[in-house]
Amino acid sequence: MGSFDVLLDDERTQLDAFVEEHRGAIEATLDGLTEEQVRRRLVPSATTLLGLLKHLTWMQRVWFEECVGGRSRRELGLVRTPDDSFRLTDDDTIASVVAAHQQACETARSAVVGLPLDTIVTGHPSGPRTLRWVYLQVLRELAQHRGHADILREQLLGHAS
User: Fold this and answer.
1) What's the distance, Cα to Cα, between the start and end of the chain in Å?
2) What are φ and ψ of residue 43, in 5° steps?
3) Which residues face 116 on adjacent strands?
4) Does domain 11-157 have CATH number 1.20.120.450?
5) What is the pTM (predicted TM-score) of this model?
6) 145-149: Cβ within 8 A, 24+ apart
7) What is d(CA 108, CA 69) in angstroms, rounded to the nearest whole number?
8) Which residues of 27-62 are buried (b: 16+ CB within 10 A; e: fewer)?
9) Are 145 and 56 in contact (CB under 8 A)?
């Protein structure tokens, strides 16, 4: 597909493409790294590469399973706050966190099949919003954290990757 063809795509196709691009790129920041490296804290906060992917898994579950799907965080077995979603357990590995992320992405794709962007979704505790708003929020978070992940990977490798 040429760049001109993208301009002709509808809004939903474009949003899906941007979300998928960021999902894949964030997973790719773990490629070739060790379990120790992806857990290493390189900034004053508790943010790590593996913790970022775990947070993004949680975030997508909140927006697509809670907000769109109408199931509570408690029912979904999700931690309550964004800060808690970065915390790693001893059981978290690259393989397990990537698998959870991929499952969350698949569930997210299924949750929105056939729903127009103007659909009002009501499952989030802060109130109703359109599916378009959910997409934009998810895209914003993915893009922001993709940048964080790129910088952390660069620090781990000691050079631009």
Assistant:
1) 27
2) -130, 160
3) none
4) yes
5) 0.91
6) 145/26, 145/52, 145/55, 145/56, 146/22, 146/25, 146/26, 146/29, 148/47, 148/52, 149/26, 149/29, 149/49, 149/52, 149/53
7) 9
8) bebbeebeeebbbeeeeeeebbbbbbbbbbbbbbbb
9) yes
DSSP 8-state class, residue 159: S
Pick the range with the lowest mean pLDDT from 42-46, 120-124, 141-145: 42-46
The C-alpha atoms of residue 65 and residue 78 are separated, in whole angstroms, by: 11
Residue 55 CA to residue 72 CA, distance in Å, equals: 17
Read off the pLDDT of each residue in 21-28 and give the average, rounded to a whole number.
97
Question: Which residues fall within 8 angstroms of residue 27, CB to CB, at 6 or more apart?
Answer: 53, 98, 101, 102
Residue 135 to residues 9, 20, 120, 157: CA-CA distances in angstroms?
Answer: 16, 11, 12, 32
**Count of residues making up the chain:** 161
Percent of the chain residues past pLDDT 90, beyond the cut: 89
Phi then psi for 15, rounded to 5 degrees? -60, -45
Name the nearest CA neighbour of 151 among 18, 29, 12, 25: 29
